[in-house]
Design brief:
The protein has 331 residues and is of the alpha/beta class. It has two domains: 1-148 and 293-331, Isopropylmalate Dehydrogenase (3-Layer(aba) Sandwich), CATH 3.40.718.10; 149-289, 3-Layer(aba) Sandwich (Isopropylmalate Dehydrogenase), CATH 3.40.718.10. It is 36% helix and 18% strand. It has eleven helices and twelve strands. Strands 3-4-2-1-5-12-11-6-7-10-8-9 form a twelve-stranded mixed β-sheet, sandwiched between helices. Strand 6 and strand 7 (160-164) form a beta hairpin. Helix 3 packs across helix 4 and helix 7 (180-196) crosses helix 8 (223-237). The chain starts with a strand and ends with a helix.
Length: 331
């Protein structure tokens, strides 16, 4: 059986990325999960954690068969400096970016079917990779690499899918960023990827309001009347099934969710607390709008857990499974 190659970037070397990537050796996944990272670092971390793993150098010419249990396939990319679990080293910032660049190039060349990313540390990249310019995150970096003008952040977990109109903004800046063109463009990207990458023929999108009680007819704000409802009307005119705006404190009720395939929230802490409560540790961060599939874990580098044996690889496993499922709907 021919299996797809998936690129798994191991992320910040001092964090739990290498630890959780080691668990792929025993995950029994129906794909070639190729870990991009320093093979010696992965071996050292496996020894610290007492994991008995056979490390196999990645060879795209090898018959595309499922690896034996306990075998981890590694695309070796060497560190720039020694690494100690839990201790950030800015000298390895460029290394982390090389992981992403290599995965992206592999996807562009048709080698990898998707990219799955372990967590990185934005601060240390900005401290140590100044030549690359300001680094604001995986999502923005991959959008720039691929020439994608707009991407959308969606998290999935606990039976929910939640996409965001705005992402990492101070709360005081959110209302100004929720514009009619942005609501429309985000909804269009969400609709297209639910259809093309998730195989949902006619996606149903539940849209929240911005204000408490969705503005309560203008008594608690006018953004629903002046921005969101006109956006939904334009989307309806183009045949996109958007519903709302719903008050954010009630949209996650089962009797409402049963009529939707995803929730489109206006800002980060409006949409994600419920999802993370429902599925933390098993959630997946999905970047929509890219010309390829990219999923990620729903957590950070957890430096205090690196090398301790207490890191949970559940989110990474689900991220790989989700990327594989999405790859099956493409083409």
């Amino acid at each position: 059986m021919t299996l797809p190659f998936l690129a798994i970037t191991s992320g910040e070397p001092a964090g739990i990325g290498p630890d959780i990537c080691l668990d792929l050796a025993a995950a029994g996944l129906p794909c070639r999960a190729v870990v991009l990272g320093d093979k010696n670092l992965l071996k050292a971390r496996a020894q610290i954690l007492g994991k008995n793993i056979v490390f196999q150098d990645f060879d795209p010419q090898r018959p595309s068969e499922k690896a034996a249990d306990g075998v981890l396939e590694v695309f070796h990319i060497p560190l720039d400096a020694p690494c100690e679990a839990g201790r950030l080293n800015p000298q390895n910032a460029a290394y982390v970016l090389r992981l992403l660049d290599t995965a992206h190039q592999g996807i562009s060349d048709g080698l990898f079917a998707a990219m799955v990313t372990a967590p990185l540390h934005k601060g240390v990249i900005n401290d140590g990779a100044a030549a690359h310019g300001f680094f604001s995150g995986h999502t923005e970096y991959l959008a720039e690499k691929s020439g994608t003008p707009q991407v959308v952040m969606m998290l999935a977990g606990g039976g929910l899918r939640v996409a965001l109109v705005t992402t990492h903004l101070p709360l005081k800046d959110v209302a100004a960023a929720v514009t009619q063109p942005r609501v429309e463009s985000v909804a269009r990207i969400l609709h297209a990827d639910l259809r093309d990458k998730f195989g949902i023929a006619a996606p149903r999108i539940l849209v929240t309001g911005l204000n408490p009680h969705a503005g309560e007819g203008g008594h608690l704000g006018h953004e629903e009347i002046e921005v969101i409802i006109p956006a939904l009307e334009n989307l309806h005119a183009d045949g996109i099934d958007v519903r709302g705006p719903y008050p954010a404190d009630t949209v996650f009720q089962p009797f409402i969710l049963k009529d939707g395939d995803a929730v489109l929230a206006m800002y980060h802490d409006q949409g994600l607390p419920t999802l993370k409560y429902a599925g933390f540790g098993k959630g997946v961060n999905i970047t929509l709008g890219l010309p390829f599939i990219r999923t990620s874990v729903d957590h950070g580098t957890a430096l205090d857990l690196a090398g301790s044996g207490r890191a949970d690889s559940g989110s990474l496993i689900v991220a790989v499974e989700t990327a594989l499922e999405m790859a099956g709907h493409e083409g």
